[in-house]
Structures are given as C-alpha cells and as structure tokens.
Amino acid sequence: MTPPVMGSWTEWYLRTERSAGTVLVFAPHPDDEVIACGGTIARLAAEGARVRIVFATDGAMSHSAVLGIHRDPAPAELRLIRRGEARAAAKELGLPEDAVHFLDFPDTALAGHLAAFRARVLDVLRVHPGVSEVYLPHEVRELNADHRLTGETVLACLAELDLTPLIHRYVVWDERTEQEFAFVNRNPPAAGAGVAERLVTVDITEQLPRKQAAFRAHRTQVELYAPGQTRPVVPEPFQQRVFTTPVEEFWITEPAAVRLEVE
Ligand SMILES: [Zn+2]
C-alpha cells in the first residue's frame, strides 16, 4: 500500500452521506476481501449495510503456484478448504452465512475464461440493481492478472447495465507484493485507462480486531499449513502490514462537479 494521504478529498469522502444499502465486494481470490477492505466491510456490516462478497476464482493454486507444493493439499482440496475459510472470515467480519458467493473460476487463469466470467458478473449485478457501493481491484494499478481482470470486467459490466454505485478501487498486488511473494502473474494493462481519481484513507482502528480475526480465518494463506511448508503463502512482512495497519485505502472517482467543489 502507498502511504496514507489525508487531505480535502478524504475529508469530503468521510463527510459524504451514503445510504446503508447494498454493498458488493469483488475479490479475485479468497483473502483479498480481508486484505483490501476487511475493516471497511466490518464497519459497513455494523452500520446495517447489506454486504455481499463475490469471489472470482477458487484460490486453488495458492500452494501450487506460489510455493510449488502440489499435494497435501492438492488444488482440488484447497478449493474446498478455501471456501470454508472465506465463509469463516465473513462471519468474523459480521456477515451472515449467505453473504459470500463463489464464481469458482480457475485461480491464476481467469484470463482464459473472460466471456463466462463476464456473464456471471452480469448475473450478480442484475440481482442487485440497487447496489450503492462497489469495492473492486484497480483495473490499472493492480499488477496481478486475476486482480486486474476482475476489476476490468466488473467495471465493464456496471457500465453495460448503467449502474452507477460509488466505486472503490483497491490495490493488493503492487511491485512490493510481487517481490514479497516471489510470484508474478501479469497481463497487459487495460487500454484507455486514465480517469481522474483520488486516494482516500479510511480509519479502521475500531474494526482492526475483526479484520485480524478474519485474516487468521484464511488459515491456508497465513499459516504453515502443508507438511513441509517452510513459509506461509502470504509472506510474513505482508501479513504484518495487514494485521497492524489501522487504515484502508481506496481510489475514488467522482463527477467533475464534485471534484471542483473539494479542490
Ligand atoms: Zn488475490
């Protein structure tokens, strides 16, 4: 994450009245929802918002792709284990059982299933026409292919359906993340990007214990889970940041009229 920037834009964001309606969080893999916006999800849930988390991929390749561990657990086993972890994490954030939705596309390979993914995202959005806020991976700043494609696809689907929720773009996979994981899975950047945007910093001090518990629920990612595993899938320095950082950051775009007002 980049250092927190507090300024007029953040103040505007925090002042803005937002109804506690339906909030959709799109996560490329189980655990991204906690890393990027676990504190925010906990706060929204406590305020009475109807938060739903949509996982794009099954997360089955974490051990195989990042650590070179292909059995115990094998990808097919991990897929099921990580579903359970995602449900447990959502519960820690204060969400009901039915708040998580698994689209189940293959981890690390979303690029090969874009048409089907797009169709499933449209299905999800059609069920929530009154969605007021959406959280998704930044379609340009994210380097990881599954992340970037999740962001690109959700944005395209929102536009197609003429839905205009307040969009929060988050960044999990920047260059530091790639270095710490020692794992790179990129795709070419989206063409034509370059919207005006501002970074807002949200204080999650009160929600940090819930975020920590939710992150711990993703046991396969934060523990030495497999026999012979010598490092966790999520590297220790990265974990420490998630466990201790009392803010979450989002890139926000707003109509020009609002930008003028706060500048
Ligand atoms: Zn991810």
From TrEMBL:
<dbReference type="InterPro" id="IPR024078">
    <property type="entry name" value="LmbE-like_dom_sf"/>
</dbReference>
<protein>
    <recommendedName>
        <fullName>PIG-L family deacetylase</fullName>
    </recommendedName>
</protein>
<dbReference type="InterPro" id="IPR003737">
    <property type="entry name" value="GlcNAc_PI_deacetylase-related"/>
</dbReference>
<keyword id="KW-0862">Zinc</keyword>
<dbReference type="Pfam" id="PF02585">
    <property type="entry name" value="PIG-L"/>
</dbReference>
